[in-house]
Amino acid sequence: MLIVPGVEYRERDRSIVVEGRVVTPSVRMFSQLVPVLRRPDMLKGDGVAYYMYRDLPPLEGSWARFDVTVIPPWRVGDELAKTKGHYHSSPAGKPPYPEIYQVHGGEALYLLQRSGRSPSEIMDFIAVRARPGDVVVIPPGYGHVTVNIGTSTLVMSNIIFRGSKSYYEPYEKLRGAAYYRLASGLVRNEEYDEVPEVRFEDPLRMSKPVVLEFLEDESSFTWLRDTERACEMRFLGASCD
User: Fold this and answer.
1) Which domains does the chain have, with CATH numbers?
2) Is residue 165 exposed (0-12), middle (13-18) or buried (19+ Cβ within 10 Å)?
3) What's the pLDDT tens digit per position in 182-226?
């Protein structure tokens, strides 16, 4: 699978190859997901839960970073394969950084949440189902988890401001997102004090890989670092208020 020119995904070993060179991934082990699983007691042994390929071409050296994440299909009990979940850091005195995701293979469900006065009080919860070619923007201030809801490996890329940092602690302390995605559907996480109904939104469609759009017109993506501008754009109908 060609993700962008020069960057290829190989399903046989779930590897990323850049101009003929196999890239070494960072990996998330099942043992690292224990704090965010609904039923960690159902985990049988350890192993790689998913693979993360960081800072790939063609954005090496740019102010933005291009990554690829590969999530095989798996279950722990009835819970489907997912990322750990995190929030983003903020520039001084401004809203947190947004992020762009695009699905290249498989099927994803993006679960986004914005907290209120405390991490356990959720003011808005958004679910977005995405297939190959679909694009999902994580608005400023929203934590997010990606779930592989298909039967094949999920391959997705992301673009984010290079200076952004990820914070996993709220998800670890509350055993995951405000909703779990089980084989039977979404189920509320009872560790949270206040949780709204799920708000379902549609992804964006782009005619080409979003990273190529970035290269052609970088000025159209400056909202990735200008977070106040990103708030004004109200991605997924989200507010920064």
Assistant:
1) 23-237 (2.60.120.10)
2) exposed
3) 999 999 999 999 999 999 999 999 888 999 999 999 999 999 999
